[in-house]
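INTERNAL AUDIT FORM
Audit reference: QA-55
Scope: verify that the stored structure record matches its stored sequence.
Auditor: D.O.
Record contents follow.
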Amino acid sequence: MSRPLPGLPPPRPIPLKERSSILFVAMGQLDVLDGAFVLVDQNGIRTHIPIGGLACLMLEPGTRVSHAAAALAARAGTLLIWVGEAGVRLYASGQPGGARADRLLFQARLALDETARLNVVRKMYALRFGEDAPEKRSVDQLRGIEGARVRETYRLLAKSCGAEWDGRRYDPHEWDTANVVNRCLSAATAALYGITEAAILAAGYAPAIGFLHTGKPQSFVYDIADIVKFEVVVPEAFRVAAAVQRDRPLEGQRIADPVAAVRHRCRDQFRKTNILARLIPLIEDVLLAGGAELPPAQPEAMPVAFADPKGLGDAGHRG
C-alpha cells in the first residue's frame, strides 16, 4: 500500500476576490525557473511574479510565453491575456479553469430568448444608471438611449475633472495619433475588461455571448464592465489626462507617462472598491433578471474554477 507524502497538502487556489487585479508585462520571456513564475529580460534578469495571487496577466508586444509558464498559470487560475501596446486591443485570452456547460447553456438560452434578453438589458441599464429603463423599448432602442447617456456622462466627468474633451475617438491601429485623454481612457477600460473577462471565465460563462453588445469575442465582457466603468476607471483616466493637459502635478507628483499613471491608479481603485469581489455576484444578478432559473450542474460537470469554501482561519489565511 502506498504511503502519503509527508508535509502539508498543496495549497488551494486563492479565491478570485482575494487576488490582486492585473499586471502588465512586456519585453521578456515568461517561464518557470526553479519552480517559480518569472519574467526574464534580454539581459537575463529575473523578475518573479506571484502568479497565483493575480486575476490576470496582460501580455503586451515583446512577450514570449513558455509551455511551462502557460501550464502553471492555468493551474493557478490566472488568466493570460494577449493585448496590444498599452492594452489598447485585446487579441486573445486563455481560460482559467474551463467553462461550465450548465452555465453556458443558461447564458445562451437567455440570449436567444427575446423577452429574457430584454429583461437582462433592462437590468444592466438599471444597475448602470440607477433608474429603471424606459418602458416599451426594444434592445436596439435601449442601446441608442444608453449611447446618448454615455456620451453625456463622458462630457460631465471630463468637465468635473477639468479635462479638455471633444469625444471618444481613436484608431486602434494608430495608437500614437490619439490624444492624451483617449489614450488614458483606452488604458483604463482595457484594464477593467481584463479582470472582467477573468471573472466571467472563472464563473463558467462565455465572454462572447452578450446581450447589449453582440458579435464580438468580448461582448459579455463589455456588457458587465460598462456597468461599473464610470464609477471605477473613467474618472481616473480623466484626472490623469487633465493633469497632463494643464501641465500640473496630480496629488503632488508630475506625470511623465500618462498611460502608466492610469494603470497604477486603476489598480489602486480595483483594490479600494474591491471590484473582484463584486464582479461575479454582479454577473449572476444580471443573468437572473432574465427570469430563468439557473440549472443544476450535472454530476460529471467540471467544478467552479475558484471554489471558496468556508475555512477555519480568517481572511488572511488560505485554509
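Auditor finding: record pair retrieved intact. The mean pLDDT is 82.
Action required: none
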